[in-house]
């Protein structure tokens, strides 16, 4: 009798399971999720939708409603995924396109958003308050200042019995940066940047046992950066380009006896850097790989970078970005210098219009290429550690102001011009940099 009861209970449970599965049809899911959408019961709608997808049921309105549920919960990564699935089934719904566009915007997927609005009609752009001519994506202007080493740190130069060679220590720089990004096709954007930098430094140069000191030496750099981004498909893009650096400085020499004289002659040169990157965006994460080659400061640099960004809540309220770089530098002497560099960034939304980003870099930053080739660290003084804070403030719909402060722990080293076992000690010093940027989203 007991076996009969157990078998009966087992059969009953199987029947109930089978009955429950039989009721999970497209019609029933459509009715249930419609009611949950009408009641704005987002949690129940997400649960019902996930169960339906797990059972192999997938249709336009299910994806649409799931997208709205995640959108209302401000998880724009998940919302964009479902809206994109619905958009593939029916791209003619204006409200759906609006939801998908803002899901991309609010999750930081600017290239997907820009690609989508390229196909909007003039009337639809007016409805969203977007400019009809969107060939120019953004423009910006920035100014940066760094004071360099203090006079007390510079006074640590030891000029006694030094071999032939030279040493510099930064006494500051001024930087002006102007940039523009524009569309050249439905899937391709070009990024132009021009920078003018004036670097000041203290110079000690020992030539044939004749020491030259110039506390007010300087160098000018004019830099041009051209980068291209191609959106292969939503969530996948490739970036490549180059960075041209033109240098103008003054070389100090001493004429030979009997009338030794100090002569300064202008010297120009140029350095180049090229890069290639690929990025793939997932739900809650973005990953990238990049490589670059450069010839900065009379050496050749090969660099590989792995980038990963995490968005735990599916939006820009909180995010992290980690960049691990491996650099191999070959000097003129044929010697190789290999190192790892780690950059860690943490972003947090403070108010509706203000974001804060804190970051730190560990490793010897010398002749390093970063930010997809747009930033070059070619200062001869090595940066051992740096950390800083950036504030993004939205001033209006199209204007954003960025304020950056960075603390730097740097080191000045003597450069030999002949083989010698005697090398003066390096000079460590601390400094900071400050920059302000105005960014127009056009």
Give the structure's gist in a few sentences:
This protein has 442 residues and is an alpha+beta fold.
Layout: helices, strands, pairs:
Blueprint: H1 2-23, H2 26-38, H3 42-54, H4 60-72, H5 76-89, H6 94-106, H7 110-117, H8 122-127, E1 136-146, H9 151-154, E2 165-183, E3 188-207, E4 210-233, E5 236-254, E6 262-282, E7 285-294, E8 299-310, E9 318-331, E10 336-349, E11 354-365, E12 368-370, E13 375-377, E14 382-394, E15 399-412, E16 415-416, E17 427-441
Antiparallel strand pairs: 1-2, 1-17, 2-3, 2-16, 3-4, 4-5, 5-6, 6-7, 7-8, 8-9, 9-10, 10-11, 11-14, 12-13, 14-15, 15-17
Structure description:
Helix content is 24%, strand content 51%. The chain is α+β, with helices and mostly antiparallel strands. The strands form 2 sheets. It has a 14-stranded antiparallel beta barrel. Strands 12-13 form a two-stranded antiparallel sheet. The chain is elongated and about 95 Å long.
Estimated structural class: alpha+beta
Instruction: Report the end-to-end length measured between terminal Cα atoms.
Output: 80 Å
> What would you report as the Rg, rounded to the nearest angstrom?
30 Å
Give the overall shape: elongated
Major sheet size, sense and barrel closure: 14 strands, antiparallel, barrel
């Amino acid at each position: 009798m007991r076996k009969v009861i157990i078998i009966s209970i087992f059969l009953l449970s199987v029947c109930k399971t089978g009955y429950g599965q039989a009721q999970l049809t497209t019609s029933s899911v459509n009715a249930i999720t419609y009611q949950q959408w009408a009641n704005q019961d987002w949690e129940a709608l997400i649960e019902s939708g996930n169960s339906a997808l797990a059972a192999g049921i997938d249709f336009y309105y299910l994806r649409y409603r799931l997208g709205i549920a995640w959108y209302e919960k401000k998880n724009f990564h998940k919302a964009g995924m479902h809206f994109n699935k619905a958009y593939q089934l029916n791209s003619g719904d204006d409200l759906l396109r609006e939801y998908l566009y803002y899901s991309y915007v609010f999750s930081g997927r600017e290239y997907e958003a820009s690609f989508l609005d390229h196909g909007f009609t003039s009337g639809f752009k007016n409805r969203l308050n977007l400019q009809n001519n969107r060939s120019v994506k953004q423009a910006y202007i920035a100014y940066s200042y760094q004071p360099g080493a203090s006079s007390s740190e510079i006074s640590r130069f030891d000029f006694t019995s030094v071999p032939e060679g030279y040493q510099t220590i930064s006494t500051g720089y001024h930087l002006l940066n102007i940039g523009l990004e524009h569309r050249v096709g439905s899937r391709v954007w070009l990024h132009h940047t021009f920078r003018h930098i004036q670097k000041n430094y203290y110079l000690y140069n020992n030539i044939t046992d004749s020491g030259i000191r110039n506390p007010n030496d300087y160098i000018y750099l004019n830099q041009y950066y051209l980068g291209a981004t191609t959106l292969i498909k939503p969530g996948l893009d490739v970036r490549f380009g180059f960075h041209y650096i033109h240098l103008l400085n003054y070389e100090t020499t001493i004429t030979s006896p009997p009338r030794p004289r100090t002569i300064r002659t202008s010297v120009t040169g140029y350095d180049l850097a090229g890069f290639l990157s690929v990025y793939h965006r997932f739900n809650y994460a973005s990953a990238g790989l990049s490589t670059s080659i450069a010839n900065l400061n009379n050496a050749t640099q090969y660099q590989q970078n792995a980038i990963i960004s995490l968005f735990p809540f599916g939006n820009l309220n909180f995010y992290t970005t980690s960049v691990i770089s491996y650099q191999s530098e070959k000097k003129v002497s044929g010697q190789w210098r290999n190192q790892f560099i780690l950059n860690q960034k943490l972003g947090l939304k403070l108010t509706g219009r203000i974001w804060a980003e804190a970051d730190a870099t560990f490793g010897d930053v010398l002749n390093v290429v970063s930010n997809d080739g747009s930033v070059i660290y070619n200062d001869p003084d090595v940066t051992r550690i740096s950390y800083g804070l950036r504030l993004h403030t939205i001033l209006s719909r199209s204007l954003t102001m960025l304020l950056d402060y960075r603390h730097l722990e740097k080191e000045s080293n003597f450069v030999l011009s002949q083989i010698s076992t005697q090398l003066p000690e390096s000079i460590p010093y601390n400094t900071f940099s400050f920059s302000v940027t105005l960014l127009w989203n056009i």
